[in-house]
Design goal:
The structure is a homodimer of 430-residue chains.
Chain A (H helix, E strand, L loop, with lengths): L2 E6 L3 H11 L11 E7 L16 E2 L2 H6 L5 E4 L7 H10 L3 E4 L2 H17 L4 E2 L11 H5 L6 E8 L2 H13 L3 H11 L7 H4 L2 H15 L9 E2 L7 H9 L2 E11 L4 E12 L11 E9 L2 E8 L3 H21 L20 E2 L6 E11 L4 H11 L4 E10 L2 E8 L2 E2 H11 L5 E10 L1
Parallel strand pairs in A: 1-2, 1-4, 2-3, 4-5, 5-6, 8-10, 10-13, 10-18
Antiparallel strand pairs in A: 7-9, 7-11, 9-10, 11-12, 14-16, 14-17, 14-18, 15-16
Helix pairs in contact in A: 1-11, 3-4, 4-9, 6-7, 12-13
C-alpha cells in the first residue's frame, strides 16, 4: 500500500526529488512507501534526467490535484499562479501539500493555511527557505520552547555569491553579476534575487514561524545589493566588517517586530561573516538558548530535493501513524497562527549606520557633519576622512545605535550643505 | 489536564529546565500543559535557583519512576547508575523518558531502546549531544532521507575551549587546563573531557542515528588532547591548519563505519576550523544534500534546558495527538535499530597524517625517512625541516591519504633509526 505522490513540475528540483525517491537504498526505510503516481509537466517530450513510465507523466496539472488517488501534492512549479490555485484545490480535495515555493507561501500563506486547517491537511515547506538546511522544522518544534529574539539569515545564495566575489576580487557589482549569470548562479532576470524580494519572502516565512504569527509580506522592508560598491566593501574591510545581504526578523518590543532585508556591515568575528559563496546560514537567537546557527547549501537540485523529501517523509510517518480519519492536526506539523504580527516601520529601527560622504575639501566639514548629526540625536562612533576621489574628499561615518528616522532626517539636512557633493552610501551595521 | 513530569536531578540543567517551564509566556503554547509534578533531589534543603512547592520535592527517586501519576520522566542526574536503572524502571512503568545522559545512552542504548519499544514509550535525547543545538531530531528525521557519508563534530566544549586558548595565546595544555578549571570550563577531574570519552559517547549516539544501526561504544577509537603541544599548534598554523578535537563517524565501505575521536589538523578554510571556545558544531555530509552544519552552545543551563524542553514538547504533542492507547510508535520519534553497525579497526582508516620528528642533525635523515615511508606505501605530501630544539633538528611530515596501519608500521621502523631521537607527535589531518 503505497503513498501516492502527485508532483507538479519536473525542473531542477523536481528531477532531483524524483531521483532521490527512485533510489531509496540507504535512506529512511519509510521512503519505500512512496509511489510516484503522477508528474505534471509543461511538455511531455522534453528530455529529462529521470525515467518515468509514460502513464505517470501528464500536462494536465489540474487533473493531478483533483485525482482522488493522490495522497500528497508536491508543488515544484514555483511562481504565484497557477501554483496558488493548484495548492488550494489540492487542499480542498483533502490532499497534503509539500511546496518549495517561498513566493506563494509568503504572499498567500494566510489563505493557504486557513484552508489547510479547515480541511485537516498539512502544508509542508522545509524547502522554501535555506535549501537543504533543516530550519523550518527546528523553528516549528525544538526552538519554539525558546523566546526567540532574532532570526538573522543569509538566505539568498545568488547575492551572497556576488558579494563574496566582490569582496575577494575587488570587482564591481555589474561585472560579477554578468559573470554569475554566465555561470548559472544568477538568473537572466536577476531582479528577485539582487533586489532582495526572494530574501524578503524567506524572512517573512521564518519570522512567522519564529514569532508565532502571520506576517504581511508588504510590510517587510526590502533593499537589495545594487547600491553596494566595491569602495564600500573596501572601507568596510578596513573597519573590520564584511558586507552581507541579511534578512532579519527581530522582536523590538513586546508587541512589535522589525522584519527587513538589507545589505549590512557584519563584524568579521560574527558567525555570519564567514558564510561565503552560494551557501546560506540562519542564526537564531533566543532565551534561554543563546545563539544557534544552521549552515548549508541554499539551493541546488540535491539540497532542495533533500528538504522536499524530508517533508514527504514526515507526511508518510503521519499518514502511517494516524489511525483515525478524524485525528486532530499534529500541532507541531500544522500551522495555526491566527493573528498578524505587528511590524514596526523601518524609521523606528534602532541600529548602527555606516555612511559615506563625498565632500568638497573645505576645513570644518567633519565638524559640521558631527554637529548636524548631534542635533538629531545621532551619536557617532567614528568619523574617518579616508581619502580623495577626484577632487573630492571621502568621509566615512559609523554611528552608535540610533533611530533610523533620526539618521534619515539628519542626512536630509546634511545633503543641503554647500560642502557636501553627495552621499553615495548609507548602510546598516550589525 | 496537565502532563505530569517527574524530574530526576535539580543541578544546573534541572534548574534551567524548571525555570524555562515555570516561565512559559512567549514560548510554544503546548508547554502550558506541563505540570512539574515531582522533582527528585539528593538534598531537599540545599538552596536552589527555583522555587517549588514542598510536596513536589523528594529524595526518593525510585518513588517518582514508580508513581502511576507521572507521564514523563526527565532524567538529569547523569552518570551510569542509578540513572540506567531508573530509566529502565520508568520505561517498564509505561512512562516516556527525556534524558541528557550521553554516557548511559551510548553504553546502554540497546537495553534501553529495546525495553522502550516493548513498552511502546519514547526515550528522547536531544540534550545528550550538542547542548542546545537541534541535531538529534534533524538526524532522525529531515536528514535521514539522505545517504549519510560522514558526521564530523566538535562536540566537547571543554577541549575546544582549551585548544582555542592554546591556539590564540600560544599557551601549553597544562596551563590552559588549570585556568579552565579555575573558571569552571573544566571539571576538577577533567578526564572524561580531555581524554575524549565524552566526545566518544556523543559520536556513538550521532553515528547510530546517522547510519541507522547500533554502535558498540567499546569499538569507538578514542584519543584525547593531552598530547597536543603548543609546538604542534604552531606548526599546524604555519601549514594552514588549526588543531581541533574531532569526533568522526564515517561510512568507509558498504558495510563498515569508522567511528573515532582524535585531535585533528583541520584546514583553516573548513567550516569547523572557525568554531572556537566552548561552542560546538556538527557537520553532516550526505547524498544528495551536500554539507550542512549545526552550530551553537554545546553546554550550559539555558542551552541544555532548551533541548530538554524541546523533547518534552515533542512528547506533549504526541500525547495530545495520540488518541488510542494502542497507537503505534511514531517511526520518526522512536528508535528501532535492530542491528549493530560494523566498525572497522582504526588500523584500516585511510587519512592524512602529520608527524613530527626530533632527529640528530645528520645529512640524509630526510631521505631515510622518505625511503622508509615509501617502503610501507606511505606517500608524502610535504617534508619540512622546520628548526632546531636544543641540539636536535625538527622535521615535520604530512602524508597523502594513507592507511593508518601502514603509517604505524613505518614509524615503528623509523623509531629504530640511529638518527631519530624521538617522534613526539602523530596527528591525523582532515
Amino acid at each position: 500500500m503505497g503513498i501516492k505522490l502527485g508532483i507538479l513540475g519536473l525542473g531542477t528540483v523536481g528531477t532531483g526529488t524524483v531521483q532521490l525517491l527512485q533510489d531509496h537504498v540507504g535512506r529512511h526505510p519509510l521512503l519505500q512507501l512512496v509511489e510516484i503516481y503522477r508528474v505534471g509537466v509543461k511538455s511531455i517530450d522534453k528530455p529529462r534526467g529521470v525515467t518515468l513510465p509514460k502513464e505517470v507523466m501528464t500536462t494536465d496539472l489540474e487533473a493531478i490535484v483533483n485525482d482522488p488517488e493522490v495522497d500528497i501534492i508536491v508543488e515544484l512549479i514555483g511562481g504565484l499562479e497557477p501554483a496558488r490555485e493548484l495548492i488550494l484545490k489540492a487542499i480542498q480535495n483533502g490532499k497534503h501539500v509539500v511546496t518549495a515555493n517561498k513566493a506563494v507561501i509568503s504572499r498567500f500563506g494566510t489563505e493557504i493555511f486557513t484552508t489547510a486547517n479547515q480541511n485537516r491537511v498539512y502544508v509542508m515547506l522545509e524547502a522554501s527557505v535555506g535549501g537543504g538546511i533543516p530550519v523550518i522544522q527546528p523553528l516549528k518544534q525544538s526552538l519554539s520552547v525558546n523566546r526567540i529574539h532574532t532570526v538573522t539569515g543569509i538566505v539568498n545564495g545568488t547575492t551572497n555569491y556576488i558579494l563574496t566575489r566582490m569582496q575577494t576580487e575587488g570587482s564591481s557589482f555589474e561585472s560579477v553579476l554578468a559573470d554569475a549569470q554566465r555561470l548559472g548562479y544568477a538568473e537572466a532576470d536577476p531582479t528577485a534575487d539582487v533586489d532582495g524580494a526572494d530574501a524578503a519572502d524567506k524572512i517573512s516565512i521564518l519570522a512567522s514561524l519564529a514569532f508565532g504569527g502571520r506576517i504581511n509580506r508588504e510590510e517587510v522592508n526590502c533593499e537589495g545589493i545594487r547600491q553596494v560598491s566595491k569602495t564600500d566593501i573596501t572601507y568596510a574591510d578596513k573597519l573590520g566588517f564584511v558586507i552581507k545581504l541579511l534578512a532579519i526578523a527581530e522582536k523590538i518590543s513586546s508587541s512589535f517586530l522589525s522584519v527587513r532585508v538589507h545589505p549590512t556591515l557584519v563584524p568579521k568575528a560574527h558567525p555570519l561573516a564567514n558564510i561565503n559563496g552560494v551557501y546560506n546560514a540562519i542564526l537564531v537567537e533566543g532565551d534561554p538558548l543563546g545563539q544557534v546557527m544552521f549552515f548549508g547549501p541554499g539551493a541546488g537540485a540535491g539540497a532542495t530535493a533533500s528538504a522536499v523529501s524530508s517533508d514527504i517523509l514526515n507526511l508518510i510517518a503521519r499518514l502511517q501513524y494516524q489511525q483515525a480519519d478524524d485525528a486532530p492536526i499534529d500541532p507541531l506539523l500544522g500551522c495555526s497562527h491566527q493573528d498578524y504580527c505587528q511590524i514596526a516601520p523601518i524609521s523606528q529601527l534602532t541600529t548602527r549606520f555606516y555612511a559615506r560622504f563625498l565632500t568638497k575639501d573645505q576645513p570644518g566639514v567633519i565638524g559640521k557633519l558631527g554637529t548636524c548629526f548631534g542635533e538629531y540625536g545621532v551619536s557617532l562612533e567614528s568619523v574617518v576622512q579616508t581619502g580623495f576621489q577626484d577632487e573630492l574628499a571621502e568621509i566615512v561615518v559609523v554611528t552608535h545605535d540610533v533611530k533610523e528616522g533620526d539618521v534619515k532626517q539628519a542626512l536630509e539636512e546634511i545633503r543641503t550643505f554647500e560642502a557636501i557633493d553627495s552621499i553615495p552610501s548609507l548602510l546598516r551595521v550589525l
